């Protein structure tokens, strides 16, 4: 990422709604994330923060609203002709109207290669070695030569401090090591955006630090990230923006100093008083 | 020294075991008289049974030895082996397709797959073989060819056994696929792996761990199950020995010939299953 990109909108989320059956988990989310920034999403269980994260790479489809990453809609294509016709015929308000057409699976998969996702439970492939886990997507999704992908995988392993574990199987590693491999696997696609879904929640307390250190390191290098977490200290130290969600809505957002130290909403105050 | 003093003052019968001065106290197991007795009784019974089998001339072990490697028996064995291999391969290919259909989002494919498994698991294999054998009664000509020419005994055996096998294989494969953690599929999707690649590289290799043991069961079941084709005069292992004993009336020794061959092949397959299981268990905790 060059400095010229900094401050551009990387993720734009507009009026996103999502229900599972009768349960509405996202009730109109608007959020903007700028290039090079770290956004930390906090909130109680069931507040919809993980679902929101999963809509950004289309693991969940939205029911209404839209999400764009680096200028292109996630999972859909806007019908330009209809939009243009309505915009000229009915005036400015119609500009958002028209239809969104679902992209083919191939197109969705291509979009996903630009968005790295790190799961709470790592989801490493247990039957592949650490090195094969990292090189799999570059080889099969980006069609990189296998040798290049393996070389790059080794460099990424070195970067997360696990150069000596290339030939190990995931189950032979500690939870913290597995999550660091999962981060390296996400980085192997050279994504524009990294999404972390509670990356340390499945870890023993003494292993949390090593994973957060890797994420901090990425933040310092200007990686655009959205991190769903319960680690308030991490949010305070690394986040550019802290977002607090509850019951499918964003209750408040702002600089960590504001949201964490001087929350304006009672719900945020109540949550922080319990976790701090 | 101090522990010695303690040991002397401790009561002899009750209380925690004390250091007797010579290191750790020895543990004395309770006598297992009942177990020994049971083992002896079972061994004696086994010996009696073995003795009667060996000493009873009616078994005609010399006839067994004469025919064990005779050309017609070996031809029958060969047919049993390739028929088993072919039926397993075709059955699992069709079964995998059915399992994927059953797990698809398309309700029509799901229903068709379910219906297939329901129908072919409900029908006795013997009925099915006879049905295909007599298909000419329903369709005397297929594509201008006489049906009886098209559906010879071997063809009927392959079709009937494969369709039967596929219904069971579908459930075995489906169980294997369901055993793969949902997070694995999501991770593969998040990494942008294509649908085919997800199946081939991520889902099926992991599903194999749960598929191999029941598939091994099915392979052995099929090996012996192919003997049913003897009813439509396919010259498999069983039919070959039947041809002999219809001529010589040495029923028991000829059945023993077939049985011993089935046991030998089953033993080899069981050994092979061990290695296949070990291959697909790589990376799992239990193998290390």
TrEMBL record, chain B:
The keyword Transmembrane helix applies. Residues 10-23 have a biased composition (Low complexity). Residues 77-270 form the ABC transmembrane type-1 domain. GO terms for biological process: amino acid transport. GO terms for molecular function: transmembrane transporter activity. SUPFAM superfamilies: MetI-like. It is found in: Cell membrane. InterPro entries: AA_ABC_transptr_permease_3TM, ArtM/GltK/GlnP/TcyL/YhdX-like, MetI-like, MetI-like_sf. Residues 1-25 are annotated as: Disordered. Keywords: Amino-acid transport, Cell membrane, Membrane, Transmembrane, Transmembrane helix, Transport. One of its GO terms (cellular component) is ATP-binding cassette (ABC) transporter complex. The chain crosses the membrane at residues 36-54, 74-100, 112-133, 251-276. It is a multi-pass membrane protein. NCBIfam families: HEQRo_perm_3TM. Belongs to the binding-protein-dependent transport system permease family. This is Amino acid ABC transporter permease. It comes from Streptomyces sp. NBC_00119.
């Amino acid at each position: 990422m060059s400095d010229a990109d900094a401050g551009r909108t990387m993720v734009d989320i507009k009026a996103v709604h999502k229900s599972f059956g009768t349960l509405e988990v996202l009730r109109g989310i608007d959020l903007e994330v700028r290039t090079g920034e770290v956004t930390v999403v906090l909130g109680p269980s069931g507040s919809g923060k993980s679902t929101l994260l999963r809509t950004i790479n289309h693991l969940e489809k939205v029911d209404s609203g839209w999400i764009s990453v680096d200028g292109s809609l996630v999972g859909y294509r806007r019908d330009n002709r209809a939009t243009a016709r309505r915009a000229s015929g009915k005036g400015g308000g119609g500009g958002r109207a028209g239809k969104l057409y679902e992209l083919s699976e191939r197109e969705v998969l291509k979009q996903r290669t630009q968005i790295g996702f790190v799961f709470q439970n790592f989801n490493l492939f247990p039957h592949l070695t650490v090195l094969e886990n990292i090189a799999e997507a570059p080889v099969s999704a980006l069609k990189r030569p296998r040798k290049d992908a393996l070389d790059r995988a080794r460099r990424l392993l070195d970067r997360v401090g696990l150069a000596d574990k290339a030939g190990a199987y995931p189950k032979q590693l500690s939870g913290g090591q597995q999550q660091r491999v999962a981060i390296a696997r996400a980085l192997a696609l050279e994504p524009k955006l990294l999404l972390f879904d509670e990356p340390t929640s499945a870890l023993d307390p003494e292993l949390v630090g090593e994973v957060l250190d890797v994420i901090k390191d990425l933040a310092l290098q200007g990686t655009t990230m959205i991190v769903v977490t319960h680690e308030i200290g991490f949010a305070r130290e690394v986040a550019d923006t802290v977002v607090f969600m509850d019951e499918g809505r964003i209750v408040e957002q702002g600089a960590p100093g504001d949201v964490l130290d001087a929350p304006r909403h009672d719900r945020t105050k109540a949550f922080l008083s319990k976790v701090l | 020294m101090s522990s010695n003093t303690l040991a002397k003052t401790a009561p002899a019968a009750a209380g925690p075991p004390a250091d007797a001065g010579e290191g750790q106290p020895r543990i004395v197991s309770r006598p297992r008289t009942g177990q020994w007795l049971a083992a002896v009784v079972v061994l004696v019974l086994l010996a009696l049974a073995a003795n009667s089998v060996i000493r009873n001339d009616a078994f005609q072990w010399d006839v067994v030895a004469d025919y064990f490697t005779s050309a017609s028996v070996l031809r029958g064995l060969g047919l049993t082996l390739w028929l088993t291999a072919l039926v397993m391969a075709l059955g699992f290919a069709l079964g995998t397709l059915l399992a994927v259909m059953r797990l698809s989002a398309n309700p029509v494919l799901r229903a068709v797959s379910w219906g297939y498994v329901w129908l072919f698991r409900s029908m006795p294999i013997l009925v099915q073989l006879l049905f295909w054998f007599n298909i000419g009664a329903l369709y005397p000509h297929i594509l201008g060819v006489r049906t009886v020419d098209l559906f010879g005994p071997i063809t009927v055996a392959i079709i009937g056994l494969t369709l039967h096998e596929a219904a069971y294989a579908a459930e075995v494969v489906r169980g294997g696929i369901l055993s793969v953690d949902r997070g694995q599929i999501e991770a593969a999707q998040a990494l942008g792996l294509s649908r085919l690649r997800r199946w081939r590289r991520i889902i099926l290799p992991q599903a194999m761990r749960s598929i191999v043991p029941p598939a091994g069961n099915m392979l052995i079941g099929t090996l012996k199950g192919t003997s049913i084709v003897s009813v439509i005069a396919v010259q498999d292992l069983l039919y070959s020995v039947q041809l002999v004993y219809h001529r010589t009336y040495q029923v028991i020794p000829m059945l023993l010939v077939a049985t011993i061959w089935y046991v030998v092949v089953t033993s080899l397959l069981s050994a092979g299953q061990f290695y296949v299981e070990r291959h697909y268990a790589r990376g799992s905790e239990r193998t290390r």
